[in-house]
Amino acid sequence: MNPKETIDDLTRRFFAVFTTDTDGKVNLDVIHDLFIPQGLIVKNVGPNPEIYNLQQFIEPRARMFEEGRLVDFVEEELSERTEIFGNIAQRFCRYRKSGTMDGAPFETEGMKTIQFINTENGWKISALAWDDEV
After folding, report:
1. Any residues with CB less than 8 A from the CB of 59 and at least 6 apart, and which?
2. Please, which domain of life does this record's source organism belong to (predicted)?
């Protein structure tokens, strides 16, 4: 695969991590395969950014799924713009997510910015940030 195809695949796999399967299960540990170990994830919805390392990001989300608080969740990329220079890349994408949280259905769209680096193990996500329409 060329770099763009690899980045497309990484992005598709990232969004798929959060989509529940027919049993309502997700495997959030797959994130470790997609990111560098020092990966950074930032939720920048509202005035106060929430900054996570991978484990800090995974743990509360895993609990929401395991406890059944978040069900029928789907997250998908709607459009993207990717720029690649040598061993670094940047993707800006519009996405939609929907599901049911604590019994209340929701659907929203937003933007994600994803940074990728080419490592000895291939292309990986180094950082991701998002903002939702509110």
Report:
1. none
2. Bacteria
Per-residue pLDDT at 20 exceeds 90? no
User: Burial of 119 by CB count in 10 Å (0-12 exposed, 13-18 middle, 19+ buried)?
Assistant: exposed
Domain spans of the chain?
A: 3-132
Sign of the Cα pseudo-torsion (10, 59, 70, 111, in order): negative
The token duo for 22 is 């027919």
Average pLDDT over residues 78-98: 98
User: What is the DSSP code (8-state) at residue 102?
Assistant: T
The fraction of the chain above a pLDDT of 70, given in percent, is 99
Q: DSSP labels for 78-97?
A: EEEEEEEETTEEEEEEEEEE
Task: Return the DSSP state at 133.
Answer: -
CATH number 3.40.50.620 is the correct assignment for the domain at 3-132:
no
